[in-house]
Write a structure and sequence with these properties.
169 residues; alpha+beta
Length: 169
């Protein structure tokens, strides 16, 4: 199941990149979708964007610097907070609108391919599955998961380069 979902997701990403390039947004790459995805950043803290994308704050900052230089996002001080917030620029909102139009076109194509009824059922099932708290990790406040750290494993010398995942307490 995971592979099929990943293949479908990659098909959508490939189509998005092609549509963006055709519309003149050829300076974007797949990594930028970690920021430029639904819901788009609109006064969002970088740490929240990093959580949603399941990446470090440092890695998210790297993407934000790129997107800011390219003119898709801006970082600004919040009115009621001392932290920085991220919002789309007009160019960023153009990308968001094009992405939504492209996804809608893909949905229509897939509905024609498998039939309107089957596609509607497929979408209902997806909505039902992602509505469960376990699957919403990374969005809103459902991110109360223990931190993950890496440590060198105590293993025989010939394979010492391996690492083992452990949960921080």
């Amino acid at each position: 199941m995971g592979a099929l979902l990943r293949f479908g997701h990659q098909m959508v990403l490939d189509r998005l990149l092609a549509a963006l390039a055709a519309a003149g947004f050829d300076d974007l790459n797949e990594a930028h979708f970690k920021v430029l995805r639904y819901p788009p950043p609109d006064g969002t803290r970088p740490s929240v964007l990093a959580q949603r994308a399941k990446m470090s704050k440092q890695a998210m900052n790297y993407l934000l610097v790129q997107l800011e230089k390219l003119g898709y996002v801006r970082r600004h001080g919040g009115v009621e907070t001392s932290g920085r917030l991220v919002s789309l620029t007009d160019r960023g909102w153009e990308v968001a609108a094009l992405q939504r139009r492209t996804v809608r076109a893909i949905e229509r194509e897939w509905a024609r391919k498998v039939g309107e009824g089957r596609f509607a059922t497929f979408m209902e099932v997806l909505h039902e599955l992602v509505a469960t708290p376990r699957l919403t990790y990374g969005f809103a406040e459902a991110t109360k998961r223990p931190a993950v750290t890496w440590r060198r494993a105590t293993i025989p010398r010939r394979t010492r380069g391996n690492t083992r995942l452990r949960t921080a307490r």
